[in-house]
């Protein structure tokens, strides 16, 4: 906010130019937030696709008669997936 005020004073902006400056700043903030939200949604969808693919591979292993184990743990920043396949 103080940077905007400094810019207004330094450039001796009129009310109309000040309103445009503030509108442009708010539009940029909203656009950035929208982009971040879209990226988060896209990332969540990708994670679901990856996890479903791993589960399908695990199911294929089970269908061969192998008694494998599958464990999925949400670690906050990432998902941990462990598949244990017995050697014998």
Give a structural overview.
- The protein has 88 residues and is α+β, with helices and mostly antiparallel strands.
- It has one domain (2-84).
- Helix content is 66%, strand content 14%.
- The chain contains 2 helices and 2 strands, in the order ααββ.
- The chain has helices at 2-10, 15-63, and strands spanning 69-74, 79-84.
- It has a two-stranded antiparallel ribbon.
- A hairpin with a 4-residue loop joins β1 (69-74) and β2 (79-84).
- The protein is rod-shaped and about 80 Å long.
- The chain starts with a helix and ends with a strand.
- The mean pLDDT is 86.
Helices and strands, in order, run as HHEE
Termini gap: 67 Å
What form results from the Cα inertia axes? rod-shaped
Instruction: Assess the beta-strand content as a share of residues.
Output: 5-15%
Class by SSE composition: alpha+beta
Strands, count: 2
Number of helices: 2
Give the strand order of the largest sheet, numbering strands 1, 2, ... along the chain: 1-2
Proportion in helices? 55-70%
Main β-sheet, in a few words?
2 strands, antiparallel
> Segments where pLDDT lies below 50 for 5+ residues?
none
Mean pLDDT: 86
Instruction: Give Rg in angstroms.
Output: 26 Å
Total domain count: 1
Compact summary:
The protein is α+β, with helices and mostly antiparallel strands. The protein has helices spanning 2-10, 15-63; strands at 69-74, 79-84.
């Amino acid at each position: 906010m103080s940077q905007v005020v400094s810019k207004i004073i330094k450039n001796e902006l009129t009310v109309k130019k000040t309103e445009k400056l503030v509108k442009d700043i708010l539009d940029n903030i909203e656009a950035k937030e929208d982009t971040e939200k879209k990226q988060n949604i896209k990332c969540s969808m990708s994670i679901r696709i990856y996890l479903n693919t791993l589960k399908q591979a695990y199911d294929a292993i089970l269908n061969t008669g192998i008694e494998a184990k599958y464990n999925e743990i949400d670690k906050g920043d990432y998902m941990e997936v462990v598949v244990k396949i017995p050697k014998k």
